[in-house]
User: Which sequence fits this backbone?
């Protein structure tokens, strides 16, 4: 009996060890997903809040110019205050800085696309890790009709004056042609591991 117990604990040790990195213990996935969820929610609320007030104050074309100047600084300042690195990425990005660049980004994007197609999965988020960091990713669906003004179909949803300013500010824009509910992009939050 004692012997069996020893074998079982040894097996448990080995199987736990499989996912452990050599330099640190296993990450607390539940806690990191919860942390990512809360930062992503605050960031989303902040951006949508600023976007909505920019539209009501300046109209949709004015809001394009506003986002052009403020979207990055806003996510950067949220990154500073939370001590993480926050980005929004997409396969059809508007800002050239928001492209899927790392292997993690591409893998996460494929997984999130699958999660979007699976109605059984409520939280469309995941974690990736490497030696120094943990990366939290979360789907950004085109969740409000408002988004179509700048990411929908040209002429049908996007007014000519809006299209004009988008083309001026983002000559390489790929972020149009979406329909409500589709996957528009994803949050990426880089978290330090040794906290
Ligand atoms: C007034 C026009 C406008 C509206 C409305 C709008 N966006 Fe955008 N969106 C932009 C602009 C401009 C950028 C590029 C910002 C930058 O330069 O960082 C952008 C970028 C993004 C990005 C980052 C990836 C990329 O393509 O660069 C995501 C994700 C995104 N928008 C999602 C949404 C969602 C979801 C909504 C609805 C809640 C929405 N947008 C509504 C104009 C708009």
Assistant:
């Amino acid at each position: 009996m004692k012997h069996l117990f020893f074998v079982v604990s040894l097996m448990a040790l080995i199987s736990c060890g499989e996912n452990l990195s050599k330099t640190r213990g296993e990450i607390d996935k539940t806690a990191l997903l919860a942390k990512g969820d809360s930062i992503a929610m605050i960031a989303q609320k902040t951006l949508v809040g600023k976007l909505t007030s920019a539209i009501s104050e300046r109209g949709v074309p004015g809001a394009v110019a506003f986002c052009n100047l403020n979207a990055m600084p806003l996510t950067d300042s949220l990154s500073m205050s939370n001590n993480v690195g926050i980005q929004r990425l997409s396969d059809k990005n508007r800002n050239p800085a928001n492209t899927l660049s790392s292997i993690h980004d591409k893998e996460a994007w494929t997984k999130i696309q699958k999660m979007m197609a699976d109605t059984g999965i409520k939280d469309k988020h995941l974690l990736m890790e490497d030696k120094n960091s943990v990366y939290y990713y979360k789907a950004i669906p085109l969740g409000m009709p408002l988004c179509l003004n700048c990411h929908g179909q040209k002429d049908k949803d996007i007014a000519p004056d809006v299209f004009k300013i988008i083309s001026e500010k983002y000559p390489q824009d790929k972020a149009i042609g979406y329909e409500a509910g589709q996957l528009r992009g994803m949050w990426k939050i880089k978290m330090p591991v040794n906290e």
